[in-house]
Amino acid sequence: MTGAQLVLKVLQQHGVKHVFGYPGGAIMPIYDAFYDSELDHFLCRHEQGAVFSAIGYARSTNQVGVCMATSGPGATNLVTGLADALLDSIPVVAITGQVFSSLMGTDAFQEVDVLGMSLAVTKHSFIVEDINDLARVLHDAFELAQSGRPGPVLVDIPKDIQIGQVDFEPYPIPKPELPEFSLEQVEAARSLISHAKHPVAYVGGGVGMADAVDELNDFLTTTKIPAVATLKGLGAVDPTYPYYLGMIGMHGTKASNLAVQECDLLICIGARFDDRVTGKLDTFAQKAKVIHLDIDKAEFGKLRKPDVAIRGDFKKLIPQMKTVVDIGEWQQQVSDLKAEHAWRYDAPGEGIYAPALLNELSQKLPHDHVVSCDVGQHQMWVAQHMQFTSPTNHLSSGGAGTMGFGLPSAVGAQIARPDTMSVVVTGDGSFMMNVQELGTIKRFQLPLKIVLLDNQRLGMVKQWQELFFEERYSETDLSDNPDFVALARAFGLKAKTIHSRFEVSDAIDQMINTDGPFLLHVVIDEKANVWPLVAPGKANHEMIEG
Ligand SMILES: Cc1ncc(C[n+]2csc(CCOP(=O)(O)OP(=O)(O)O)c2C)c(N)n1
Predict the structure, then answer these.
(1) Per CATH, the architecture of 183-341 is what?
(2) Locate the Thiamine pyrophosphate enzyme central domain: which residues (predicted)?
C-alpha cells in the first residue's frame, strides 16, 4: 500500500473515526486515500477551525483528536491551536503534508520548516524521513499524545513518503504505563490531611483527564473537605456538593478565594498554581501546607513548594487520600462564606443581565450538555454562573485564552457526541475570529446552539481599560458589528435577536426546542463588567466588586 494509505490504516488501528482538516498540494496523497477510506473526514473552513475542532473532540471525550493540514500556510494555521492544546494538556495528533524530501531546504513552493516551527507548541514533533519508519512514528505520536500529561504531537510527512510503497504490519498497541507511588508518601499526605483544621481541595483539569471524577467525589463526600476548582477543573466536583465553593482565582467566587486564603492545608489535585489562580503568588494560601498530586513531576515545586508531592494515576491515588478528619467548625465557616457571597441575579433595569441569562440557560439545558466558550467576559460569566456535571461538558481555552476557540471546539464536540446538545457561548469579538466555521455547521447539519453575547465591545479588554488604563478605550469598540442574525441565516441557521430581560425565557426555550442549529443574538449593556475581580499583582483576598 502507499504511505498515505498506511497513515489512515494506523489511525484506524488507534480507534480514530473522525478527522478534521483541510487539503492542499503537499497532503493530496493522504486526501486521495480518504476517498476510499471508512474514516470520516470533516472539512473545516480554516485549518485553525480544524485544530480547534480536534481539541473540542478530545476535550469532550478524553480521546485523541486528529487534524490535518497541508504544508506551508496550512501548517502555520495550526500553530495557535497546537499552543492552545499544549497549555491545556489536550491530546491531539496533527498530521501535516510536507514538500518532497528532495526539495526540502530549497525554499520550495509552500515549504515551511514545520518541525522547527512547531517544537515550541507541541509536546513533540516528528518528521518522517524513511517510509519504513512511518507506522512507528505515528504509533509513537499517539502514545505520546496520551501518555503522562497529555498534549499535542505533530507528524510532518513529505510527499514522497506519502506516495511511496510500504507493507502494513499490524502493530500491538502498548497499554499506557502509569507511575507507581509509595505507601510512605501516601501516609505522609494522609497524616497532613487528618491533622488539618482548615483543609481545602484545589481541583484542576488533571482530575477529568485522568477520568477520576468519581474517585474525587467519593473522596470529598467521605471526608467532607471543602473544594474549589480551576477553570479547567469545573465539572469535576459535583455542583451539588454542599462544601463546593466554585471557581478560584482572578474571577473566582469570593467564598473560594477567601477559603483558600484561610486554609491550613491545600490539597492540589491536578492543578498547577497558574497566575490566574494564585494572584500575587507569595500571598497565595500563605498559611497552608501543600499536598500536590499530579501526573507530571515537572509541576512539583515549579511555583509553590509542596510539603508532600505524589506523582500517580488519580484513579488509584485519590482513593488513598481518604482518612478521618475533624473539621466541623471549618465546614460551618465555609458554609457561612458560601451563603454570604452567593450570586445575586436581581440587576436593575430592563436590559439583559448576562449572568442571569446564563444561570437560566444552565437550568434549562438537558442534564448532559456541552458548553464551549470563547474568551472574554462571557467566558468568565459561564464559569461563574453555569453548572457542569463533568469536565468533558465544559470546554474553555484556559491556558492560552484563545479567542475563536468556541465555535470550532463545539463543532468537534458535537461530532464526537452527536446525541448531546452542544452550546457555544461567545462574544461579538471572539465569534468573528472563526466565524467561517458556520460553513462547517451548515455542511454537516450540526444542531449547535449559539448564544452570542453582544456588547459591541472587546469587553474584557475594555473592562481593563476602564479599571487600569484611566478609561482610555483604545481599539475596543465593535459598534460596527455585522448583522449577526443575517449572517447566521446566510449559513442556514435559524436566528433571533433579543434586547430585553422579558424576552430571555422564551428565547432560551425556542433555541433549545428548535431542531437544528440556532443563533441567539443577545444584546447586552456595553458597561457590564465581570465581578468579582482580583486586580493584577494583588492578593486573592483583595478581590474587588463592582
Ligand atoms: C486570539 C486572541 N487575541 C486577543 C486576545 C485578547 N483578548 C482577551 S479577551 C478579548 C476581548 C474579547 O471580546 P469578546 O469576544 O467580544 O468577548 P467579551 O469580553 O466582550 O465578552 C481580547 C481581545 C485573545 N485572548 N485571543
Answers:
(1) 3-Layer(aba) Sandwich (3.40)
(2) 186-320
